[in-house]
């Protein structure tokens, strides 16, 4: 299986407390996912492999002979091969059970891949379903499994495929494989097919789904879910009263186009007769695995299957149970005709049968998992999901099977959330399987989170501890996925340590490759980062040292306006600098007041400074600590909007201290509003330049403000600017005393004259931000 490209790199994943991805859905009832099978207990109490097949249904030899003739027509097999089967059937003219007929065929044809054996098996399977239908008997689960086994083997047999076992596309969207076709006078006597709706969204020609059949029809569901709609159809006089028009149907196999049914069709055509019809929905019935339903001759119906689901049925047309010569199709009243090309675009019966069989086994696995989970039999449930996941990887790894992959992920998540794992080996096995399921579904970061999950050990360490070829293959998979091989367990040993201790040279080679790849990625990333930082420093130096710094020297009153204008102009003039640094943005004080909370960068309140157009001429930069108690929060403030209220209090006191500054002229710089929170790189790179364009910095100081790295680096910047040029102002706004609502109790005071900052010891919410802080520290040294 090819891995998603995102797995070629190593990613640090943020986890919730229980080790699941942060966005993992909360635990719901197990039965919600993919529905609940009506025979769950029966399905899980006895596996398909061990279930004894039996059927008391008697099959008449004359029916078998008729079916063999129909197989000859449908599959285009040779008369010689058919005669071998007919000769065996003709030996005994008595009726006997399907099981006895099958035993006779087994003994009569020893070569399992020979066409006569496949023809004989198909004849028994089809005759059994015809007999069941004619006697109005329900086919048991074991009988359907037996029939499908014979049909599937025939569809996957290469000799049958070469003989002419074909696939065609129906106007209703499904793919049909005709297995038996008996035509009398151009009319269907018996037609037995496999119908498969693929999860590819193709569901037939729009508007032509309501149709009728000349003969009686019966369907047995092999896999998936489908819904059958029955309609009450009546002729109407006018177009306005009509929902549809009546269409006449004709087929062609390459020669004449007429109303005589053709087993092997090139295309079919429906033509508007001009008769207006009204179709009202009558009965609606959903059908799942091992269920059956029938359609009377001439009755109008349609079948609906979800576009992302696979649905497969055995389908019988039987003229002996009812036949009408006139079986029209309904279509759009305004259209004239529709042509359905029957070509299946290269899809083979072998591929279809393999996929249907895989989905059937997948359904069995999920039913077993649900059965065991409801009984708290966690290991058995996990084992069933492991098999389902293997099917997704090996046999169902197709472009349109996401629904099935996601169902396994959902079930695994439920087991992980509902069962407290105590055994470290269980943890490793479950996390590894969950990671593979996520990776197959393209959830790269969540997959890595499972592969790197640490609960005393990691999958890489555990698989290295026990030498085996299976574990080496798992190590190769983890290597390709980019898992972390550097972690050590509670004993201080890494995956490499255990491989060497065990003299497992093959595992050692795999792990060394993983470590080398990780180190090379790290080195490549480090070099890329250093190149980026060097280019940023070059741009920074050219902007600040050569353009902005000369304007700040001397401390003129108008220098800040000149600085802002010059910065805006240089970004417009130089595309490289425009790509490297964010524009100077701000929020109007009046709009901040009205908003009622910190606006996010995508709220539309932040605007770029435009020389000569922006009315604001005094800008305040706010440095503050994120106080949201949720460590994964995407917003800086708490539910009470504490920091937002402090900002407003600080501005109110600032205006009291500086009465000459007009409130409507104030612009406010707040990181959450002015730096793009989805793509913050350019805003962070420009932070010293942005701060340098603000007239004053106000720090919202509390007992932890100076412990935070981001706050400290902003303090370093304003301290450097104030000391070097004497133009900028810096204030501290202290946290009000508990219970105080009086602004006077929260004085606005000048920032300290001397500040010593050691950023390496300061705290960060995300430690991966440390290189950004240290880079900004270096940039700050260019401000003086």
From TrEMBL:
Domain of life: Eukaryota
Protein name in the entry: Heterokaryon incompatibility domain-containing protein
